[in-house]
Amino acid sequence: MLERSQILARFRAQSWVPERPGSDKAPRLGEQAFPTQVGTTSRGSPRILCLGPGDWLIVSREQTSSGLRQRLDPDLAGQGLALVDVTDAWVTLEVHGPSARDLLAKGCGLDLHRHSFVSGRCARTRCAQIPVILECLDDSPRFELSVARSYFDYLHSWLKDAAAEFGERRA
């Protein structure tokens, strides 16, 4: 139900180009367009999460940060994005299983109902009173929580304690 996720690379991408109303020109990574609706995720490799207008998180399980950076730089050059490598700043926990939504709801104010927070959704929120980025990976359900490295031990312990109600023993 609860395990550390092996994310090899994470980059924050923020646009410094002012948005134009009605403009649907999103940055592109090769053939993959960045999602423009806040709270949505593009599938593929890497995954791109839209955290806010002109604000994205790029996540890869396949490429290291240096490898992903080499891929990002030529594709994103000239698109008005500032890239910051946050790979070592954050840690990601995966929460999955039949009680995952109920477990997360104990510490999170989002509506996590299976019809509201579906696969491909993401949000910046608070869980156990700390800031996290929450993403629904699939409807099994399986979620990832990205948290600042300094909060990892606290969040992990909090989730383990909260999972005891559901008979979860593994961590």
Quick take:
The protein has 171 residues and is α+β, with helices and mostly antiparallel strands. It has 3 helices and 12 strands, in the order E-E-E-E-E-E-E-H-E-E-H-E-E-E-H.
Labels describing this entry:
171 residues; alpha+beta; Alpha-Beta Plaits; Gyrase A, domain 2; 2 domains; 5-stranded antiparallel beta sheet; globular
| Shape annotation | globular
CATH topology assignment of the largest domain: Alpha-Beta Plaits
Residue ranges: pLDDT <50 for 5 or more in a row? none
CATH architecture of the largest domain: 2-Layer Sandwich
CATH superfamily of the largest domain: Heterotetrameric sarcosine oxidase
Task: Please indicate the count of domains.
Answer: 2
Our Rg estimate from Cα atoms comes to: 16 Å
The percentage helix is 10-25%
Distance between the termini: 8 Å
Strand order in the largest sheet? 1-9-12-11-10
Largest β sheet strand count, sense and barrel closure: 5 strands, antiparallel
Helix tally equals: 3
Strand portion: 35-45%
The overall pLDDT, averaged over residues, is: 91
- The CATH class of the largest domain is Alpha Beta
Which secondary-structure class do the elements indicate?
alpha+beta
Q: H/E element string?
A: EEEEEEEHEEHEEEH
